[in-house]
Amino acid sequence: MSRLLVCPPDYFGIEYEINPWMRVSNTADLKRARLQWYALMQELEHQIGATLERMDPIAGLPDMVFTANAGVLYGLRAVPSRFRHPERQREERYFEQWFRTHGYDVTLLEEGLYFEGAGDLLGFPDIWFGGYRQRTDIRAYPRLSEIFNREIIPLELVNPRFYHLDTCFCPLSGGELLYYPPAFDPYAQTVLSDRIAKDRQMIVPEAEALRFACNAVCIGRHVVLPDGCPDTMKQLEERGYHVHPVPLDEFMKAGGSAKCLTLALE
Amino acid sequence: MTAAEETVILQGHIIDSLILAKVLDTILMMGGTFDLSDVQIGTTRQEASRATIVVRAASPALLAEILTTIQPHGASVARETDCTVEPVRTAGVFPDGFYATTHLPTHVRLQGHWCEVQAIEMDLGIRVDPSKVSARAIPMTDARPGDLIVTGRDGIRVLPLQRPPERDVFSFMEAQVSSERPHGPIIADIARRMRTLREAGGTQGKVLLAGGPAIIHSGGRDALTWLIEAGFVHVLFCGNALAAHDMEAHMFGTSLGYGLSAGHTVPHGHEHHLRTINRIRAIGSIEQAVASGAITQGIMAACVRQKVQVVMAGTIRDDGPLPGVITDSVRAQAAMRAALPGVKLALLVASTLHAIATGNLLPATVPTVCVDVNPAVPTKLADRGSFQAVGLVMDAASFLRDLTRELGGKI
Q1: Are B52 and B71 in contact (CB under 8 A)?
Q2: Chain A interface, mutation test: which of B17, B22, B50, most A Cβ atoms within 10 Å?
């Protein structure tokens, strides 16, 4: 069954502004955030049967809760992130340490080669896609492609609200792609409409994309996504997915949702 | 005139992701131009591709703006370094790892400046002068101890061939060889170029013809003689045989013993070329034979009269040979090489040996035609790298007669 790395939101908060969603004045309600996080874990663990690996949160690192940005792994090989913003660079060593102590073969990218883990690198078994321009440096992909021996198609992200690929792009287990095209430049949109069969493209409407409908966790035929996305849910259900809407608005204040709060370990 | 240029490298899965297309579109949209100087496409889906792009702009400011714009898409400025050189230790031996040339225009970077390699031809090395301001392609045999020879691949640019402004058969620059290709338009294009070069009176370049004895055997002698007399051919590369049979035809009316008008062997005809060679050897040289009136007609006589530069290269099967035939092949190669500057059109007619030898010496920028009744010859020439050669599968005499008629000769 699926294993996910998560980090409890003990120190979560809006302490800086590194994306358009964050406003220091828009304080997170920690109590509510905790409830929402535990509800998400409940759904993943008990409704879907995923195994959760909890890492220790660190005081002063409010965004560590977003484990999707820890790095990227495949098999026992892990490449920890190199964050663009100094605020998150302090998380790097904790994620790296977690990978090492859990038996992963860790490869480090050279310093200054920004790469924000599974937040920007996602894909299907045969092809991976990498978001660039907002956070990850496109130059990281040839290196990652070499490390993982995978084709990695870089996609330019053009809207700062969709600053990571996982905010607007979600590959599903049945081969469908849930995504929001305007988050990409015209070349990336062409690539996606060419590479993904028409009947497998599931376009998310703007209003729901802005609620991070694409920031969903797909495990087998289950999809966990933020609540308030009826159109996306309907599309998923029509294709036979079991949908699990979870309220996660406290985390939206930091620009993250269900997918950002997890890192698939398998 | 281009004011500024920079080489950038783009790598990764740049083809299917349209990243390469995006970068190239961006350069053009911003008013720059580019040359894709090298593209290596990954052979499997997993393998990355790599493109080397020379970006050009009208001003350094525009270039900087373009580079800044394409940089986030992964285009990184190639770290430009001077080419590396190593000294020759033994005469006639290049240092290990020497750079082997192509016949395409080539530049090397010396002390921060790109400089064009002179006398480029395929399969040579590049010698840099001691003050490092110029470079020249040289054969292995010319390497002298202490010469600085370019090694490795850094600081070397091979430029793709620019399409010539003329819209004729040479503008395709591809060695298509087909016996089914109509000859007429190709010959008309060749004639047009020859006429232009002759009208310029040598200011725009010379026409080279490299030919074999089949020109005489097949009956193309009169046509070639006319072309030379009329001033359309300025350099002739041949062997002992073409000259010997041309003069045999004048002295005995035969070519390798065949009566040229009778069409059959004549008694003791096989001796004719030997007697011809022997006669010329007795006279001392072809020039003297013409001057003394012993030879008054034919290709060699026309060459002497028109002061055509003739290089005769010998082979191990030669009889004689005639005086003037260079029997040392390295010297012959050097003499051919020395005759090439200024050649702007090369006709390689009915000789595998001379066609390939000449093809090896010609830069890719020289329009080249290879005429042979055997399609294997132009094919072989293309296989050895002379991709610019236009192949014409036809008999030598027919080619020369058609060309002569096209140029107004009455044959």
Answers
A1: no
A2: B17
Q: What is the rounded radius of gyration, in angstroms, for the C-alpha atoms of chain A?
A: 17
Predicted confidence band at A112 (pLDDT cuts at 50, 70, 90)? confident
Q: CB A187 to CB B13 under 8 A? A: no
Could you tell me the CATH number of the domain that includes residue A220? 3.75.10.10
Residue numbers in A near B13 (CB within 8 A): 141-142, 145, 151-154
**Cα–Cα dist B403/B393, whole Å:** 14
Cα–Cα distances in angstroms (integers) from residue B147 to residues B91, B128, B157, B260, B305, in the given order: 9, 7, 21, 53, 41
Q: Please tell me which residue of chain B has the smallest CA distance to A192.
A: B17
Higher per-residue pLDDT: B136 or B171: B136
Across the interface, whether the CB atoms of B74 and A138 are under 8 A apart is answered: yes
- In CATH terms, B84-158 corresponds, of 3.40.1190.20, 3.40.190.10, 1.20.120.1080, 2.40.420.10, to 2.40.420.10
* Residues contacting residue B165 through CB under 8 Å, at least 6 positions apart: none
A194-A196-A197-A201 Cα dihedral, nearest 10 degrees: -120
Q: The domain B4-77: what is its CATH number?
A: 3.30.70.2690
Residue A185 at interface with chain B, using a CB cutoff of 8 Å: yes
3-class secondary structure per residue, B77-127: ECCCCCCEEEECCCCCCCCCCECCCCCCCEEEEECCEEEEEECCCCCCEEE
Q: Provide the pLDDT for residue A90.
A: 96
Search chain A and give the residue with CA nearest B15: A153
Q: Which of B367, B371, B344 is nearest to B355 (CA)?
A: B371
* A187 in B contact zone (CB under 8 Å): yes
Look-up of token digits 């992200």: A157
Instruction: Using the structure block, give the residue that is written with the tokens 């580079």.
Output: B67
Longest dimension (CA), chain B: 83
CB-facing half-sphere around the CA of B222: CA atoms within 13 A: 11
CATH of domain B169-406: 3.40.50.10690
Q: Which two tokens stand for residue B172?
A: 């395709």
How deeply is B238 buried, as exposed, middle or buried, from its count of CB atoms within 10 A (0-12, 13-18, 19+)?
Answer: buried
**Which residues does residue A6 pair with via DSSP β-bridges, in sequence order?**
A54
The interface pTM score, or ipTM, of the predicted complex is 0.91
Overall number of domains in chain A: 1
List helix spans (H) across chain A. 30-42, 86-89, 92-101, 140-148, 186-195, 206-209, 230-238, 249-252
High-pLDDT (> 70) share of chain B, %: 95
Mean pLDDT of B273-302: 97
Q: Could you tell me if A34 lies within 8 Å of chain B, comparing CB atoms?
A: no
Q: What is residue B3's predicted lDDT score, i.e. its pLDDT? A: 64
Q: Do A141 and B45 touch (CB under 8 A)?
A: no
Q: Which of A74, A110, A139 to mutate to test the interface with B (most CBs of B within 10 A)?
A: A139
Please list the alpha-helical segments (H only) found in B138-220. Answer: 184-199, 214-217
Range of the structural domain that residue A170 is part of: 3-264
The shortest CB-CB distance from A187 to any of B11, B21, B76 is to B21
Select from B192, B155, B183 the least CA-distant residue to B80: B155
Q: pLDDT digit string (tens) for B139-167? A: 999 999 999 999 998 888 877 666 566 66
The residues spanned by each domain of chain B are 4-77, 84-158, 169-406
Strand A3-6 and strand B113-118: the pairing is unpaired
